[in-house]
Every structure is written in C-alpha cells, then in structure tokens.
Amino acid sequence: MTGAFDSQRNGCGETLLVPEFESDYVQPRNITLWLPPGYGTEHDQRYRVIYAHDGQNLFDPQTSFAGVDWGIDEAMCRLLPGGDISNALVVGIWNTPDRYREYDPQKVFEAYLSPQEKTEYAREYGRPMADRYLKFIVQELKPFIDRSYRTLPEMADTFLIGSSMGGLISAYGLCEYPEVFAGAACLSTHWPAGEGKMADYLADRLPDPQTHRLYFDYGTETIDAQYEPFQLRVDEVLRRRGYLEGHHWVTRKFIGEDHSERAWRRRVEIPLRFLLK
To answer: Among 71, 146, 242, 250, which residue has the least CB neighbours within 10 Å?
Structure first.
C-alpha cells in the first residue's frame, strides 16, 4: 500500500514522510506523521491521534502554502512539558488538486440543495466527494497508523483538525463518523461552501455532546470577514442540540486576523488545548 517512511528529526520530536499513500477511494497523496519527543524510548506508552488536513502546511515552511507552516510540532512541544495537553501523534494528510471537492461535505450537496442549486453548484465547483475522502481516512489511513504505531485507537482518543475547507470537512467527518472521532477543531471554517447549508446538516446530524467536542474560530479580515453570520447560526444550532459552550464546544473570534497559515500558526495552541486537554 505504501512506500517506506523518510525520517527527519528537528529537535522537537520526529517527522516522518510516506510519499504517495495509495487509496481505493481517492488519488494517492503524501502523509506526514509527527511523533512527539520520547516516542522512540517510551516503548509502553500509547498515544492519542490527531488527523490534520492540508498536511503539507503543518510542519515545514518549504512545503507550506505561502512559505509559512502552522508549526503544530512546535506548538505541541510548548504545551506538553506543562501538562496542558495529553500526548498525541499528528497525522498530516496532504491535499491534492481535488482538495475542494474532497473537503466539500457531500450529503449537504445531496440532501439540502435544490435541483437547480445542485446543477449550478456542480458546474462551478464540481460534485463533492467528501464521503470518499473520509472513507480513505477511516478505512485505509487510520488502520495503517494504528497498525504501525502505538496509538490509542478508540473514538475518545481520535480527533480531526483543519482550516477553511479543512474546517468544514473536520466538522463533517465528526458527524459522519461519530464512532471514530471524538472531537474536531475547525479554524476559519469556510461556511459559504455548499450554498451555506452546512448549518442545516449540523442541526440534523450533530453527535452526542456528552461524548463529542467541537472547536470553531474565525478572524475578521479577508475571507474570514464573511464568516460571522454563518458561525452565529451554527452556534445557535449547537446550543439547541445540547452543546454547552466552553465545555462541549468553543467558538472564538480573533479581531484583526485574516485567512492564512500565518494567522492559524499564531493560534493553533488554542484548538490543540481544547482537543487534548
């Protein structure tokens, strides 16, 4: 299924790359895996796992869009010594030219758009294929990670994180596979996708707040300036579905922040704390 991992140590854990991970559902793509400090010596310890979208943007500025990475490895290494979070592996799933379609919630398109909206939407963006992308993660990638590394494979220890369309697929993945994922962190979620109907889907499909958690945030500049009305509607859906703000769910507004890796790098510690507390 895969080639061998290339390994790189950078003083903050170890980053491994497997090129062109193959799939029966979506086109092959690179996978970057970050192992925390001590993974190679603590042979009895098992680790929680975060599956992160847009994996090329997470650890290395040389592969990241616009030359700025999220610095998730650095953020983890700042948080771990103080006990702010539990230890975890981070699996970075690189995107492909099909990124928009893979991250675009498929059932929103299928069940919440009118026939005319579907026709116009498919003409502009293509038909969503998020269900195939999630099958790749759940049925192929996760079993490989659990088989190859010392993970805690249960739902309570498995999470999703992403930004923009990656935030959208993280929320969608939590709803589609509530038995697999316990939490999702959605940064600058691109709510206008799917004709803005994601809130209707969430109202119908949100999982049990007693066992699941959601983090949302947004800025006020560039594309993020569009998001507040959508986010306020989603927040109301969460309240109606029994999510307690500050406990089962958090929404943060970052005044002056834009839609960029640089902005997400500045605040990535916050969703990591929320998921791994």
So the answer is: 242
Q: How many CB atoms lie within 10 A of CB 204?
A: 12
pLDDT band at 8 (very low <50, low <70, confident <90, very high): low
CA dist 68 and 189 (Å) reads 19
Which domains, from first to last, does the chain contain?
Answer: 6-276 (3.40.50.1820)
Taken in order 246, 221, 72, 27, the sign of the CA dihedral is: positive
The pair of three-digit structure tokens given for residue 38, joined into one six-digit string = 């001590």
Alpha-carbon distance of 25 to 8, in angstroms, equals 29
Q: Are 79 and 273 in contact (CB under 8 A)?
A: yes
pTM for the whole structure: 0.95
Helices and strands (H and E) in the chain: how many:
11, 9
Instruction: Compute the average pLDDT of residues 207-222.
Output: 98
Which single residue is written with the structure tokens 């195939």? 132
And the tokens for 42? 């603590």
Instruction: Specify whether the CB–CB gap between 248 and 212 falls below 8 A.
Output: yes
Q: Does position 99 have pLDDT exceeding 80, yes or no? A: yes
